[in-house]
Specification:
The protein is α+β, with helices and mostly antiparallel strands. It is 33% helix and 26% strand. The strands form 2 sheets. Strands 3, 4, 5, 6, 7 and 8 form a 6-stranded antiparallel sheet that branches. The protein has a two-stranded antiparallel sheet with strand order 1-2.
Length: 271
């Protein structure tokens, strides 16, 4: 799948669908169907601060309703209320958010922020917000059965590592996902670079995808070998994971979907 940068006029929007850019009129909506305020667009995962984004369950961009929170970690300080009661202060809590698209709940571990830093750092004052640090179910773990299980397992491990705040480990497992793909496509000899080049020559990978795969391979190598200068950031690992996910869609999901459309009786399941 190839992404193309296009400049859009203010009166229109672009939607990327199956590798095809489709155009339509933009509708700026701030109120939902039930009269609720819609949150600002957010490409990440939802939390109490930004109750919108990618749903880990259905994989769709959606808004979320916060149905409640419970304490997890208390600070050593406390608040004294006017009546004299003492209340321990929180630094972590768990919140349940319900996706308005699939109507299923997700769990978010959130930490308290004051201003632009976590409250536990006690830097300065500011607005108190709650921001997600862990999510359940794990994002990018709901893969279709069109992807071979051994490849899906490795990819899910890359996802788990990323959302456990281990970007190096995630980068390495994304590279291992590529290795598993080359084996599945019949390339078992030589370096990973050689295998990917052979897949391009055989027409399995487009040349544009092959160029992107080289970047994934290089970041994976950085993650595998200790170098205090060359680090893998969380953003690096996120971009890497997103690309490998798109590659899985291109090589497995889309061909299988096309085959099912040509043979409607073929069953389909999600894991």
């Amino acid at each position: 799948m190839c992404y193309v940068a296009i400049t859009i006029s203010p009166g229109s929007s672009n939607i990327l669908k199956g590798g095809i850019v489709m155009f339509g009129f933009r509708k700026d909506k701030t109120i939902g169907k039930r009269g609720e305020d819609l949150p600002l667009p957010h490409e990440g995962l939802p939390d109490s601060l930004r109750p919108s984004g990618l749903c880990p369950r259905c994989g769709k961009q959606s808004s979320f309703e916060n149905v409640g929170s419970l304490p997890v970690t208390y600070d050593s300080s406390y608040v004294v209320h006017p009546g004299g009661e003492h209340e321990l202060t929180l630094i972590d809590r768990v919140s349940s958010l319900v996706c308005r698209h699939c109507s299923q709940g997700i769990v978010v571990i959130e930490e308290e922020w004051v201003g632009d830093s976590p409250a536990k750092q006690q830097k300065h004052g500011g607005t108190v917000t709650w921001r997600g640090i862990h999510w359940w179910p794990l994002p990018e773990s709901n893969l279709s059965t069109d992807i071979p299980k051994n490849i899906a397992d490795v990819f899910c491990e890359a996802s788990m590592s990323l959302f456990a705040n281990c970007p190096r480990a995630s980068a390495v497992m994304s590279r291992r996902t590529l290795e598993a793909i080359t084996v599945d496509k019949g390339e078992t000899a030589g370096t990973l670079a050689d295998r990917l080049l052979n897949l391009t020559k055989r027409g399995i990978l487009l040349s544009t995808l092959s160029d992107w795969v080289k970047e994934v391979r290089l970041i994976g190598n950085v993650g595998a070998h200790f170098d205090p200068i060359q680090t893998v950031t969380v953003d690096d690992a996120k971009q890497l994971l997103s690309f490998v996910r798109e590659l899985l869609k291109y090589l497995y999901d889309l061909p299988a979907e096309l085959k099912r459309k040509r043979s409607p009786s073929t069953p389909y399941t999600d894991t």
